[in-house]
């Protein structure tokens, strides 16, 4: 039944994506059904996308179409994890203690919540389906043993790294530089895998990898304004790029760090037609 549930949810989401105004889905409308609790983990605060409208839309299609999850009705139990491990585990134990227990968990958005929950759910054989988790640890060699009931519907770093490699290879670039955030494993580990694949799989030379972290940045004097701080605090990193004449730069950092890195690059004249910066696609335009 759990596998049926997951397939039904994915089918419903796909149906929503392909639905056009005035177009009718092929199955008849239905009402009622045996209620099945579905745990939904979200983060309801600024800076995090609100997934609830999309989930409600998908469930609406599930509930009103007789060919999807026939005879059952999913009932959402929404829990806000605040992107904190403690809140996430409390939400999990609240759901486990409830009767009936949820047939599956949908979410969440933060690795620090997903990891302990995914490790715990195997003891109750409850499936967790994440719509936002991309961390490399969920695709490691021992991930199936650690998280046997965890699944995700977004591409992980292995997929995005291959896309970056193919992108570089498509334009015939044979020499690149990289920037990685070495105080965050979710960026540093996939970045190391990326540089290895570029060098050994595509014959691309990594001229230099600059490591950045917030501890290093915070040592700059508070009296400097942000633009000058931005230039001064990363100047030693970009000097090596300029010295090696690197023009193609792949960046694996969080959004705030990306702004700092690009600011420093701008003040070093590393922009324009002669430079290419490749950043994670989920960064906003602000």
UniProtKB/TrEMBL annotation:
Transmembrane intervals: none
Cellular component terms per the entry's GO annotation: G protein-coupled receptor heterodimeric complex
Domain Receptor ligand binding region: 52-278
GO biological process terms, semicolon-separated: gamma-aminobutyric acid signaling pathway
PANTHER family listed in its UniProt record: GABA-B RECEPTOR (PTHR10519), GAMMA-AMINOBUTYRIC ACID TYPE B RECEPTOR SUBUNIT 2 (PTHR10519:SF74)
GO molecular function, one term: G protein-coupled GABA receptor activity
Listed name of the protein: Receptor ligand binding region domain-containing protein
Cell compartment(s), UniProt: Membrane
Gene3D superfamilies: 3.40.50.2300
Primary localisation category: membrane
Keyword Transmembrane helix part of the UniProt annotation: yes
Signal peptide location: 1-15
Upper taxonomic lineage: Eukaryota, Metazoa, Ecdysozoa, Nematoda, Chromadorea
Keywords in alphabetical order: G-protein coupled receptor, Glycoprotein, Membrane, Receptor, Signal, Transducer, Transmembrane, Transmembrane helix
Species per Swiss-Prot/TrEMBL record: Caenorhabditis brenneri
């Amino acid at each position: 039944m759990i596998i049926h549930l997951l397939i039904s949810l994915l089918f419903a989401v796909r149906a929503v994506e392909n639905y056009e105004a005035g177009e009718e889905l092929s199955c008849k409308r239905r009402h009622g059904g045996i209620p099945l609790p579905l745990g939904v983990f979200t983060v309801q605060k600024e800076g995090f996308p609100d997934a609830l409208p999309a989930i409600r839309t998908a469930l609406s299609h599930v509930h009103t179409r007789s060919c999807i999850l026939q005879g059952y009705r999913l009932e959402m139990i929404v829990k806000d994890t605040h992107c904190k491990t403690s809140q996430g585990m409390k939400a999990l134990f609240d759901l486990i203690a409830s009767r009936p227990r949820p047939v599956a968990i949908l979410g969440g958005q933060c690795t620090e919540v997903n990891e302990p929950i995914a490790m715990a759910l195997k003891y109750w054989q409850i499936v967790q389906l994440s719509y936002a988790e991309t961390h490399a640890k969920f695709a490691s060699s021992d991930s199936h043993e650690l998280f046997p009931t965890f699944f995700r519907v977004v591409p992980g770093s292995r997929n995005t790294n291959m896309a970056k490699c193919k992108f570089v290879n498509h334009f015939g670039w044979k020499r690149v530089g990289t920037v990685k955030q070495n105080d965050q494993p979710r960026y540093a580990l996939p970045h190391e895998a990326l540089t290895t694949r570029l060098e050994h799989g595509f014959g691309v030379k990594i001229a230099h990898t600059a490591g950045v972290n917030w501890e290093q940045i915070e040592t700059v004097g508070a009296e400097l304004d942000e633009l000058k701080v931005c230039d001064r605090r990363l100047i030693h990193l970009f000097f090596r790029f300029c010295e090696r004449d690197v023009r193609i730069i792949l960046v694996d950092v969080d959004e705030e760090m990306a702004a700092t890195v690009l600011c420093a690059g701008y003040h070093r004249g590393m922009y324009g037609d002669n430079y290419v910066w490749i950043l994670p696609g989920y960064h906003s335009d602000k």
